[in-house]
């Protein structure tokens, strides 16, 4: 039974890794077209992606700007929401939290269409800042969840102790609440960072071909056939994801963030 | 005593007055931001879906049901009826249902096994799962496209290893041809529903694991062990102890993945034959693509959203009904 179980897990891992492995292998091709296994292996494509081809370096720059901007903004939006929800638990705060997670819950194409209209009225269609705001709103639900988990993990006894010793609310916030929730805030930040980096469909609608992120650029090149440079992009993105989630797992409690029971540690 | 009271009430009143207004201010600001950014875009889609396209130009505000009529019975109704758009919605549903079921059913045993590993091993697996979860749709489609395309990938592998010949000899090749998975010469996975559903299922598989994980890792293991002590076999335990306990998250996960998959765009454009494209593809071609009919695209988006909502509501209904029995 145990052997069958391990075999099944290995099989799933293999299937999960298969397309990723194929893409990674294809990045080593020397020629202009994709072969697997790679022919005439070289690392020249990495240089093209990061340094020499402006199409890709610009797209990568845009991706980074959007991801970092969106992650910061999403955390800034999610913090007061989560705090209001935790400290008051009022009907208003619950409604706001529900509305705030709505963009993430519905099929993304619908929100993308809506944002397309929204920005065309506000004049932000095709502007990078509108892309940043769009991703922040779309993914705000993630830091809201992680920060809420962090706030719930605060021992109420600490708050009572602080209040007994005469700490004002702002002092309590600074000395008790903030330090204990920082790991969860950072996790939320990174979740948005990675998902924004990889998001396609909403960006597709709000960019209106005004600029391209890496995922958009890849989709645009899809019709002209693949080039190994695209595979380098894929490797980069996978590497970023693995690094970020490893960091979250290393410095935060990933199983708990994912909702595992605390007791079976 | 009076001094102590004085000290106590001093900051108390000050605190009561100040944070209250601060909290209220915060609430107002947040409400404004959330309504503007999260609600207005959806309202715009809804309102524009009643708009009217002007030939050779953009569109104007209006209140007409023509877009909806066109969706259900075609633009020329009642002289001519076409169910093209309904059929596209049907494909959206078909792909999403099969792919989400496939993902949940295969992810369930995996997640169960995962939740029994050590904490460290779980964290390592979660890193792997999350990395593949966050991987962009375009990369996943690219990977499967290379794997399934006719010149490289699996068909070439089939041919060079003689598997194609073996299939021909045993008669399975004809079966594959009947399913549309083979050309006269070799197996062919592009374009096919098989490739579409496979990729979509792959797309949400990590989501299925992540969504099932909390429920499965909180399963009371002593119950399964008690059942085992009393002589129940592994399958019997799974059916009578584990399954009833996770029925709710299992159902909820399938529903969520289904709703998510209703809007899949990249996988369908690449892997499905043009005649089998879904509503999401039609939405794009109306809003940004060749057709440029924003109101009709908006109407399709509204219908897609409504169908998702109806499915969620129905699911909730079935659940409470099953719970009550």
From TrEMBL, chain A:
Keywords: Cell inner membrane, Cell membrane, Membrane, Transmembrane, Transmembrane helix, Transport
UniProt-listed CDD domains: TM_PBP2
InterPro entries according to UniProt: MetI-like, MetI-like_sf
GO BP terms in the entry: transmembrane transport
Keyword Kinase attached: no
Transmembrane segments: 64-86, 98-122, 128-151, 231-249
Membrane topology field: Multi-pass membrane protein
GO cellular component: plasma membrane
Keyword Repeat: no
PROSITE patterns noted in UniProt: ABC_TM1 (PS50928)
Main location as per UniProt: membrane
Stored Pfam families: BPD_transp_1
Cell location: Cell inner membrane; Cell membrane
Gene3D superfamilies referenced in this protein's UniProt entry, alphabetically: MetI-like
Residue ranges occupied by any ABC transmembrane type-1 domain in the UniProt entry: 60-249
UniProt family annotation: Belongs to the binding-protein-dependent transport system permease family.
Protein name per the record: Putative spermidine/putrescine transport system permease protein
TrEMBL record, chain B:
Any one of the GO BP annotations: transmembrane transport
Annotated ranges, domain ABC transmembrane type-1: 89-315
Top-rank lineage group of the source organism: Bacteria
Major location (coarse): membrane
Topology within the bilayer: Multi-pass membrane protein
Cellular component, GO annotation: plasma membrane
UniProt subcellular location: Cell membrane
SUPFAM superfamilies: MetI-like
Keyword Membrane attached: yes
Pfam families: BPD_transp_1
Keyword terms, alphabetized: Cell membrane, Membrane, Transmembrane, Transmembrane helix, Transport
Membrane-traversing stretches: 25-51, 93-114, 123-144, 194-216, 248-274, 294-315
Family annotation (PANTHER family): INNER MEMBRANE ABC TRANSPORTER PERMEASE PROTEIN YDCU-RELATED, INNER MEMBRANE ABC TRANSPORTER PERMEASE PROTEIN YDCU-RELATED-RELATED
Protein family membership: Belongs to the binding-protein-dependent transport system permease family. CysTW subfamily.
Protein name: Putative spermidine/putrescine transport system permease protein
Lineage of source species: Bacteria, Pseudomonadati, Pseudomonadota, Alphaproteobacteria, Rhodobacterales
